[in-house]
Amino acid sequence: MKKRILYGIIILIFILNIKLFFDISCIKDEVNSVKNTTSHLDNKINNISSNVSKTLNEFYEEKKFVYNVEHEVLSLSKDLKEVKLDFKWSLRELSNEYNVYLLYGAVEEGTQNVAKWNEVKVQDLQNLNYGCTLSIPYQNNYQFKVIAKSDKNTISEKLMDIPFLDKFNKRININLMPNTKTSSKGHANLKFAINILNKYDLKFENDSTKINENMLKMKNITVKVYSNSNLKSEIKILENGVLKDKNASYVKPFGMTKDFKIEEIHYEDNIEYDTDSNENSREKIEVIVEDYMGKVYKNISHEI
């Protein structure tokens, strides 16, 4: 009798386990179905969002007064002082009473403001297509816009921005690495490393092959070390294109093709000096690079 009861319990547990297994399988299937549904909904929402953005962009483009905008750098002077540009664009609607002009202005450094706008009469290429060719100083950032004037009304819209100066300056990268500092009783020891990379071929500009690339090379490099904003050390590591410090060296570019013209200088040092206070001092490093055009590039490290 006891064996029958025991067998009955075992069979019951077995049946319950089988039922539990199938119940869990059903729950897993339902969870997977919910996940698939959610994923499908996410895809639908993303598609809707993408379509809405595309429709809004198309609507915005259709409502723009100026469209089909093209520009080309025709020439860049050997001394990098002047660039010649060609613009072409189309207008949506305009009556014959309007005269069309191109406005351009140099952006004040460190801002997005144009102090003075210059107006140029453009060429009518027929069927509301226009063009303009102009020569302007190269080393500036510019904003361009189109303006249509009549006796009673003025219509104006942005054409484009061209950051010549930003692209020119970004070809030199100054990386400062204050590594370690120890200080005690008015005396400090600062260890740091500097890496300077200069891309001097201006391949990012059209018709840059005629320029004198030697003008873009690094001529002078000065390193200044400050403690609590007071100058403590000034080191000339490059002077008239010649390395002047034993801790400075040219780095052979790694993985660069012959199409790129790059010079890279690495410098590291350990400077000791007396601080102006027995309390903890704050150190920073400034690197000043000058190219053969006389243009100066600076970078200052964080305080350590």
List the SSEs and their pairings.
Blueprint: H1 2-63, E1 66-76, E2 82-91, E3 99-106, E4 118-121, E5 123-124, E6 129-137, E7 141-149, E8 154-163, H2 164-169, E9 172-184, E10 187-199, E11 218-227, E12 230-239, E13 242-243, E14 248-250, E15 262-274, E16 283-291, E17 296-300
Antiparallel strand pairs: 1-2, 2-6, 3-4, 3-7, 5-6, 7-8, 9-10, 10-15, 11-12, 11-16, 12-13, 14-15, 16-17
- Report the span from N to C terminus: 87 Å
Mean residue pLDDT: 84
Range of strand content = over 45%
Q: What is the gyration radius calculated from CA atoms?
A: 34 Å
Strand order of the largest sheet: 13-12-11-16-17
Spans where pLDDT lies below 50 across 5 or more residues: none
Large-scale geometry: flat
Q: Approximately how much helix is present in the residues?
A: 10-25%
Total E-strand runs: 17
Query: Main beta sheet: strand number and arrangement?
Result: 5 strands, antiparallel
Q: With helices defined by DSSP (H or I, 4 residues minimum), what is the helix count?
A: 2
Series of secondary-structure elements, N-terminal to C-terminal:
HEEEEEEEEHEEEEEEEEE
Structural class: alpha+beta
Description of the molecule:
- By secondary structure, the chain is α+β, with helices and mostly antiparallel strands.
- It has 2 helices and 17 strands.
- The chain has helices at 2-63, 164-169, and strands at 66-76, 82-91, 99-106, 118-121, 123-124, 129-137, 141-149, 154-163, 172-184, 187-199, 218-227, 230-239, 242-243, 248-250, 262-274, 283-291, 296-300.
- It has a 5-stranded antiparallel sheet, with no helix packed on it. Strands 1-2-6-5 form a 4-stranded antiparallel sheet, with no helix packed on it.
- β9 and β10 form a beta hairpin.
- The mean pLDDT is 84.
